[in-house]
Each structure stands twice: as structure tokens, then as C-alpha cells.
């Protein structure tokens, strides 16, 4: 089997690197590089539009109503499972990472210690800080965390709706939000975790990037980088969009200095998310006396970087041979299946959608699947926002495809939510 896995590494590496290279070349063509075969317009037949304030309010209200509906559905499932005999509907969301976020809100990073170490510095702080502020008013920690998640999710839906509608119209925008909301792991948007907040900060950042409002994008990027490490990817998305705006590689009369200057003057705004990363490093320094203490604590969680082919290799092995059959179906098999589905969607979108979004989606997918012990691929991918736009475009004006995809995701959503509440390895 050693030979098989060696071939596996080579083939997957070539596939991933080759796809990334093609996406970069297409982006260069869109930026003006003379690569005609790749300079294909992105859905030129679609008509975009601005979204009215009234529509934004409707989207926000519908998103909040959906979060309430999922909460009530969770309570109903929990009651059927006998989980509410000695607890209440709020307590069922205090599990896995949610348990740790509750403790961080109540005890702080200094006070929440395990084995004499600040192991929970690996959790980024913005969600903790905002939930703590809300808790001063609300009193209940779990309720405060849910409120932050629900409101963030609703705000994120507004930004993502506006972003999709700007290029492709409101029908595609509505379908984008629909697919995001029924994605099998989308119930995490309403939990005591960072998904809702990261969704908001990322969607807002991408919206302002698309509008070329660089400083607004940078400010949202600071918040995103304080929520998750992936918040820094907004820098790359902004750089890709800026180079497209400047037509950086177009062979015209502009001098090299003029081209560089056009990009350089915007760099302070583009690099603002680094301040969010700096804030996180400062937290590590204050709590543990080492700005990179989180890299040490990651070892406790068996986390670190691992090239994607190796990650997919152990996922496949665990899906086939992990001792517990239940854990295979709850954890490993879904993670294996998600990658080819998302990768195929990315390949389809590669020559059809805007290059900044395909590049952002590519890097997000690769990084999500480049961890030494990947337990939450589905949860991470719920915030890979361009993929839901790609799915909406793929099924646009195809009612049977839309119905089939929606039905499949809704069934998986219900199964995974039930498994999560029952204490399964769904995290």
C-alpha cells in the first residue's frame, strides 16, 4: 500500500496545484495579460442590480426567522431524544467547542486553564469579547452567544445577498442564501461558535472589496482576522480585485512605475487585516508571555499544517477502517465526500465566475483540508461563501436540479443536526 499512497500524493498534488495555476492564469488574463484562451467573460449574460434597503430588511428578518425555526427544531429533536429532562433548550447548544467558548466568556483567557496551561488561546477572541459585552446586558452566557451568532448570521445574509445580486441579480442572490442556509452544517451558524460572526465579517469584507471600498474592506478584515485565521485571506481577495480594477497586466502605454503606484497607494487599506492578526498575537503575549503561544497549544489538539494530499489520505483511511462505524459516518465519510463535491464545483466555476471569488474559494478549500487532524471540515466549509454562489449559478433556471440539491441538503441537515444534538462526533 505504500506505493499506492505515494501515487495518491503525486496525483492529488498535481491536480490541486494544476487547478490553482489555471485559476491564477485566468485571473492574469482578466487583468489584461495576453492569454486569450483564458480571458472568458464571467456570465456576461447575467444582469446585476443594487438591492433596496427594504429588501435588505426582508432578508435580515427572514434570516432571523430561520435561526429561530432551527432553534425550535433543535429543541423538538432534543425533547424527542430525552435531552430536556434535566436541562433547557439553551443548554443543548453548549457542546464541543461551544462548551469552551462559554467558559472563555465567563472565565476569560487568563482564568480558563486546563492542565496548568492556557490551552484555549487557540480560540480567536472577537466572538468571546462581543459575547461578554452582550452578557453584561442579557445575563445568560449561552443566550448571549446565541444572540451574537443569530444577529451576525442575519447581517451576513444581507451582505452576501447584496454581493451576489450586484453581479447576477436577485434570483441568484436568493438561491445563494438558500443553499448557504440549508447546507448540512449550517446549523452551526446558530450555535455558540464563531461561524455566524465569521460569516458576517467575511461577507461584509467581500462586499466592500467588490465595491472597491478598500478601507471599509480592511476594517471588516481586521474583525475577520480577530475571529479566525482565515480572515487574512481577505487580503488576497482584495489584491486580486484591485489588480483587476487596475488592469495591471494590460500591454498599454503605462510605465511599470505607474502600474505599481496604482496598486501601492491602496496597500495600507488592503493590509489592515494584519492588525487583527497582531491583536491576536498580543493576546497571546499578554496571557502567556509569548505571542506565538497558540502554536504550542495547537499541539495539544493535534493541530498543525499538513499538505492536502496527506490530509485526504488519512481521511480516506479513517473512513474505511476507523474502529467505530458510527464515527465513520458522523465524521470521516462526510469529510471525504465534501472535498470532491466542492472541488468539482470550483472547477466548474473556474471559467465562469469572477476570478477573485474563484481564487478565494480555491485557497479556502485547500487550507481547510490542510490540517494534521481535521475534525470540522463541514463546519469550516459553511463559511466558504463563494461556493454557495457557484451552486446558485450552476442550478440557475434549472428547477429540477434546484429541487434535487435542496432535498439532499435538507435531509443531510436534519440528520446531522440530530446527530450533533445526540452527542455524535459532529463538530
Automatic annotation (TrEMBL):
InterPro entries in the record: PIG-V/Gpi18
Segments passing through the bilayer: 6-29, 64-83, 142-161, 182-207, 219-242, 263-283, 331-350, 357-381, 401-422
GO cellular component, one term: mannosyltransferase complex
Localization, UniProt: Endoplasmic reticulum membrane
Keywords: Endoplasmic reticulum, Glycosyltransferase, GPI-anchor biosynthesis, Membrane, Transferase, Transmembrane, Transmembrane helix
A GO BP entry: GPI anchor biosynthetic process
Membrane topology: Multi-pass membrane protein
GO MF annotations, alphabetized: alpha-1,6-mannosyltransferase activity; GPI mannosyltransferase activity
Main location: endoplasmic reticulum
Pfam family, one: Mannosyl_trans2
Pathway: Glycolipid biosynthesis; glycosylphosphatidylinositol-anchor biosynthesis
Record protein name field: Glycosyltransferase RgtA/B/C/D-like domain-containing protein
Organism for this UniProt entry: Candidatus Flavonifractor merdigallinarum
Taxonomic lineage of the native organism: Bacteria, Bacillati, Bacillota, Clostridia, Eubacteriales
Amino acid at each position: 500500500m505504500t506505493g499506492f499512497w505515494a501515487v495518491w500524493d503525486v496525483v492529488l498534488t498535481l491536480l490541486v496545484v494544476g487547478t490553482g495555476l489555471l485559476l491564477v492564469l485566468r485571473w492574469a488574463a482578466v487583468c489584461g495579460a495576453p492569454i486569450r484562451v483564458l480571458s472568458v467573460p464571467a456570465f456576461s449574460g447575467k444582469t446585476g442590480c443594487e438591492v433596496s434597503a427594504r429588501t435588505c430588511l426582508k432578508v435580515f428578518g427572514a434570516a432571523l426567522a430561520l435561526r429561530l425555526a432551527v432553534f425550535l427544531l433543535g429543541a423538538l429533536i432534543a425533547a424527542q431524544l430525552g435531552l430536556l429532562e434535566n436541562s433547557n433548550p439553551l443548554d443543548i447548544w453548549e457542546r464541543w467547542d461551544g462548551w469552551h467558548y462559554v467558559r472563555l466568556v465567563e472565565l476569560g483567557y487568563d482564568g480558563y486553564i486546563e492542565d496548568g496551561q492556557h490551552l484555549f488561546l487557540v480560540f480567536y477572541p472577537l466572538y468571546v469579547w462581543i459575547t461578554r459585552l452582550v452578557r453584561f446586558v442579557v445575563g445568560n452566557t449561552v443566550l448571549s452567544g446565541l444572540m451574537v451568532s443569530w444577529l451576525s448570521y442575519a447581517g451576513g445574509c444581507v451582505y452576501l445577498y447584496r454581493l451576489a445580486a450586484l453581479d447576477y441579480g436577485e434570483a441568484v442572490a436568493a438561491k445563494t442564501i438558500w443553499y448557504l442556509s440549508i447546507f448540512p452544517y449550517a446549523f452551526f451558524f446558530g450555535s455558540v461558535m464563531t461561524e455566524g460572526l465569521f460569516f458576517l465579517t467575511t461577507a461584509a469584507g467581500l462586499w466592500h472589496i467588490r465595491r472597491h471600498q478598500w478601507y471599509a474592506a480592511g476594517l471588516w478584515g481586521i474583525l475577520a482576522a480577530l475571529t479566525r485565521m482565515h480572515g487574512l485571506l481577505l487580503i488576497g481577495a482584495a489584491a486580486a480585485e484591485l489588480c483587476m480594477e487596475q488592469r495591471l497586466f494590460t500591454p498599454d502605454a503605462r510605465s511599470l512605475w505607474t502600474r505599481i503606484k496604482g496598486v501601492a497607494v491602496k496597500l495600507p487599506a488592503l493590509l489592515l487585516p494584519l492588525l487583527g492578526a497582531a491583536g491576536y498575537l498580543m493576546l497571546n503575549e499578554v496571557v502567556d508571555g509569548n505571542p506565538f503561544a497558540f502554536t504550542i497549544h495547537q499541539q495539544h489538539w493535534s493541530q498543525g499544517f499538513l499538505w492536502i494530499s496527506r490530509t485526504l489520505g488519512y481521511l480516506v483511511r479513517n473512513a474505511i477502517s476507523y474502529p467505530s462505524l458510527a464515527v465513520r459516518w458522523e465524521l470521516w465519510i462526510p469529510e471525504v465526500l465534501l472535498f470532491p463535491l466542492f472541488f468539482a464545483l470550483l472547477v466548474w466555476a473556474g471559467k465562469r465566475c469572477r476570478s477573485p471569488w474563484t481564487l478565494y474559494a480555491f485557497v479556502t478549500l485547500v487550507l481547510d483540508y490542510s490540517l494534521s487532524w481535521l475534525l470540522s471540515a463541514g463546519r469550516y466549509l459553511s463559511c466558504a461563501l463563494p461556493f454557495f454562489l457557484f451552486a446558485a449559478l450552476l442550478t440557475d433556471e434549472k428547477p429540477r436540479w434546484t429541487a434535487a440539491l435542496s432535498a439532499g441538503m435538507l435531509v443531510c441537515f436534519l440528520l446531522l443536526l440530530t446527530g450533533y444534538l445526540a452527542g455524535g462526533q459532529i463538530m
